[in-house]
Amino acid sequence: MPTPDNMTIHRTVRKDGRDYLNRMGIDQEVPRDMEEHLTNLFFTWHGPSVDVVDRNMYEVAKQQWQEHIEDTPYYSEALTSAMCCLGAAFEARYHPTFITYPKSLSDFFADRAKTTLEIELDSPTVATVQAMVVLSGHDIGCRREARGWLYSGMAMRLAFDLGLHLDMTPYVANGSISQAEADLRSMVFWGAYTLDHHWGYLLGRPFRTNLEDVTVQKPGLKSKRIEAQRWCPYGLPYATSFPAGLSIPLFAPLLSLHRVILSEIMTPLGHVLYGSSQTSKEELQRLNVEVTDRLLHWKENLPTPLKFTIDDYTIPLPHVLLLHMHYHQAIIHAHRPWMSKSSIQPQPQRGPGHAHARMMCIESATCIAQLLRIYEKYYTFQRINVQAVAITCSAALMLIFAKAIHHSVHDDQATLSNLNICFRALEEFGSSWESAKRAQGFLLHMQRLWDTRVRLHNSSKRLGSQSQDISNAAAETPASKRSRNSFTPFAGGNGHSYGSTGIHTESDSDGLDLLWAATMGTMPPSAQ
Questions:
Q1: pTM for the complete prediction?
Q2: Which residues, other chains included, contact 360 with Cβ-Cβ below 8 Å and sequence gap of 6+?
Q3: Using CB atoms within 10 A of its CB, is residue 312 exposed (0-12), middle (13-18) or buried (19+)?
Q4: CA atoms of 95 and 267, how far apart (whole Å)
Q5: What would the pLDDT profile of 459-468 be if each residue is shown by its tens digit?
């Protein structure tokens, strides 16, 4: 074996961290009460939706590192700063007494996390993976998609490097590690996996994780945390419909398990859409049918604590609402490529066709808007995970399209109401996330563009119809006039009813179809 290089200088955060922070101008001493407040915000509003940090193990490891001066793989300064960074996203940009200007409070902690992370990468631990997963959300929310995508990918690489993908049962049996440590390793691996797949769909980039070598159990299957935790809405900015003093069970492992399953269902479709150009239209359609069936089965078989309907009068966990938003976004991802009549539809047409795809997308977008309305009622839009930005943008885009093809005042008013909640949500998200501002600007541009095109399309139709009426008037017979004045319910043809939504499409909407296809090529990452 090669001899070790004794001249190599190994950096550590304990020894070199303060010097590195000082060079970056971010070495201010963080007040203990501020750090506790920001980590409370993180664990309340972000942690359960990206379950990679177990609070009990984190607190024990933090005490071990800070008070007993012992290194531990389950705590790092980078992780603490990363959690404070996302916690600060729920606060004002600038603190009244802790001065970080011109950096926002969130960016200040993000820069601290990145600086210490650079040192930790010399000798990474489980906490390093956790810090990368948390930081990826911050950077993508701040429109630094490349860096956020890299952090997410690095977290997955490092998870494999540290063996987090391996079953630890034999090591628990022989006493090498505790069951709590094994559960944490499972939590971190699958948390990194689901978030990496979510960002892949968000950014429209290829992603694929070889699960053949993964032996670690999914979270929630045998976890003792199933009913051990309770949740309350810490740090609400103002009074809401959530009863004061109430706490409700937090089924974090169940949430994690069903997020993992949802990601696994969508993985084959994501690989084909973003990683392969060789798949035939027929094969893509077959895969889409399979994925849709699995999605519907996933929804139908959710355990009772995770079930929720719009008419449910129980108080839902915010993380359960977000899980259902993820489901409806998955339905949109599965059907959106088929919304065009001509783009990738097999010829001759097979399957339910573009009308069914439009129905599924618009109905899911409507459900997302309804879930947002409930979320605002109990928790406000100022306390929501960054992942909601992309979900809301996807829903709003579908609703703008629905508005363009509506033909009744009632449908149009319902769509406008749902669009209103999406735009209000993005407006409030924008106080924390730059990506929400960009998404809102894109959607407003598309709405103006589509409204203009629809008006031009309808004007040309009216002119063509008037010309046709004039030319046919002289040839009209009494029999044909009686036929025209009698009403016969329409059945069949190219028109399509969208069932409960009352949405109808026209057979001659080629202009809208071309506009839709063009739009898909200009979408920003937040709308993917």
A1: 0.85
A2: 292, 331, 332, 334, 335
A3: exposed
A4: 41
A5: 776 666 655 5
